[in-house]
Amino acid sequence: MAQEYKIKGLSALDLKNGEKREVEVEGIENGKVLLARVGGTTHAMSSNCTHYGAPLKLGVLTPEGRLTCAWHGACFNVGTGDVEDAPALDPIAKFDVYEKGGAVYIKGEEATIKASRRNPNVKCSAQGQEKVVVVGGGSGAMGAVQALREQDFKGEITMISKEPNLPIDRTKLSKALIADKSKIEWRSQEWFDSASIATVSDEVKSIDFKSKSISTKSGKSYPYTKLILASGGTPKMLPLPGFKELSNIFLLRTIPDVQAILGAVGEEKGKNVVIIGSSFIGMEVANALSSDNNVTVVGMEEAPLERVMGSEVGKIFQKLISQKGVKFHMGASVDSAKTSSDDQSKVGSVSLKDGTSLPADLVVLGIGVTPATEYLQDNGAIQLEKDGSIRTNETFEVEGQSGVYAIGDIATYPYHGPGGNGTLTRIEHWNVAQNSGRSVAA
Hints:
Blueprint: E1 3-6, E2 20-24, E3 32-38, E4 41-46, E5 60-61, E6 66-68, E7 75-77, E8 83-85, E9 94-100, E10 103-108, H1 110-115, E11 131-135, H2 139-150, E12 156-161, H3 171-176, H4 181-184, H5 189-194, E13 197-201, E14 204-208, E15 213-216, E16 221-223, E17 226-229, E18 233-235, E19 249-250, H6 255-265, E20 272-276, H7 280-289, E21 294-299, H8 306-309, H9 311-322, E22 327-330, E23 334-339, E24 347-352, E25 357-359, E26 362-365, E27 369-371, E28 390-391, E29 404-406, E30 411-415, E31 423-425, H10 430-440
Parallel strand pairs: 11-12, 11-17, 12-13, 17-29, 19-26, 20-21, 20-26, 21-22, 28-30
Antiparallel strand pairs: 1-10, 2-3, 3-4, 4-9, 5-6, 6-7, 7-8, 9-10, 14-15, 15-16, 18-27, 23-24, 24-25, 30-31
């Protein structure tokens, strides 16, 4: 039950428009809320971002009341607390705030104040004839199924994923090499059960768009009235000598991938690790392994992250990670992977085209993904793009298929963001996937 709590050291709501102020709540250990004034009204809300817990006092507040987290860009509406931009899944909590007797008070529940979030109401007992099937179990799929229940959809929801776990915060795989699924799953099985969202661990084999039915590798069939394709990407393997033949060469997409990498590093550590690719995954893995191993990053660009952030910013990141002992070979091309002198089945070094040989006890590839649409390659109802992606309209609806949507890594759509002007674009980013998942749930 909501109770009244006094704000420590505040006698009046004297914030100016656009001002934010983190304040302490008396009577609650470590209890804090954020006050923000927009359009002449002062709002009280959770003090931390619901994504990774960043202090929202460090965020950016617009005159329209949009609060953006300083760490990863999650956005919230200060009037409602609702999520307006990924990567946050949960909204922030809102509290009544008022002056009384020369002091300022808020009204709320202690648990909610301490949790610094509002749990979305997704409890549901599925009913009716509508059946939504989501193919995939990543960021886009998670955004879609949660938004469906948040928007009071009462029909059946089935999520089919070939991964042996519930949807995970995939960025933690490369940022921290976390192999324990319980630490990175977005939601528990109990959460999905309470929301009447069926989670199926299976692989989609084919889709009959005419009869609106999905067939899986296990031989089961799932009818749908609305279909959301969110099957994500498949990491690329280098088509060069040695990379397919030798062991201890790893891709990174799933929890088993992380387990395999950690197994190769072993407890003794001190390994020679070569990371091919200098974008987000390569740089994050380099950072995660740098403290106990000899890490080398190989990239084709002149600076890490150059294609995303530009050369100047990329060089700043390179300098920071170099301080941890990571070595870089930029503007470099890989020639082949060579065998280990101790074990002919394992990689022992990576050869660059300039003749450089890099010792390698293990290699991690982070060179991008291809759209995971193999289940549609021989389907005459959909014409895949040259890269294997699916063309959609502005609402992510698949061309020629009413009620069928494609989101995330597999979607090529008219981009109307900065500099886009409707250009057909495919974006590989978990924020984009989650946001598009929310949008197709409407």
